[in-house]
């Protein structure tokens, strides 16, 4: 009988988490997986991610599920991300979620590069269904092979420290892209982003359909 895949659930956060996130995490279906969860509080998000990544590597996990503490999601999130990772033979897979502020666009980038110390990127504007290969995304809802962390650290001796004035998540994605790691966005796995309201695909479409107003 095959052993259960070992999943390290990494949650960087401040002192408090959104109640919707707590409910989502409490009901997350972990059947079929051996899971451990680690919260790490701190004001420097890249340091928190680097430390969580180091924990995942030391725990010899097979995969890392990155969740931001302002996400809400369905209970089958982990199962679906895992299935997509296997089906697409990808190294990293993200669910679809949207920025908390107007124009509520997806937190994903079709193209992302750093040239002469300057970040160059194109927002993802593709279909809001199906699975699509992308260069970068936010780390609000991401499943990756732990092997990707070892590969990135082995090459760069760093993982999440910022490059070219971009966030820690895009900095990791740039390093991963340089190594040829495959990143996909599964638009059928949809998450809410908690702000003054929960930003969902429906809110994004309503804003866009009304010419940038609600």
**How many DSSP-defined strands?**
13
Q: What does the overall shape look like?
A: globular
Amino- and carboxy-terminal Cα gap = 54 Å
Q: How many structural domains are formed by the residues?
A: 1
CATH class: Alpha Beta
Average pLDDT value?
95
The fraction of residues assigned to DSSP E strands is 25-35%
Share of helix, binned: 25-40%
Stretches where pLDDT falls below 50 for ≥5 residues? none
Structural class: alpha+beta
**Largest β-sheet summary:** 7 strands, mixed
CA-based gyration radius: 16 Å
- CATH T-level fold name: Spore Coat Polysaccharide Biosynthesis Protein SpsA, Chain A
Per CATH, the architecture is Alpha-Beta Complex
What is the element string, with H for helices and E for strands?
EHEHEEHEEEEEEHHEEEH
Number of H/I helices: 6
Query: Strand sequence of the main sheet, in spatial order?
Result: 2-1-3-10-5-11-8
Secondary structure layout plus pairing:
Elements lengths: L5 E8 L5 H8 L7 E8 L3 H14 L4 E5 L3 E2 L4 H11 L4 E5 L11 E8 L2 E6 L7 E3 L2 E2 L3 E5 H11 L11 H11 L4 E8 L1 E3 L3 E2 L1 H9 L5
Parallel strand pairs: 1-2, 1-3, 5-11
Antiparallel strand pairs: 3-10, 4-12, 5-10, 6-7, 6-9, 8-11, 12-13
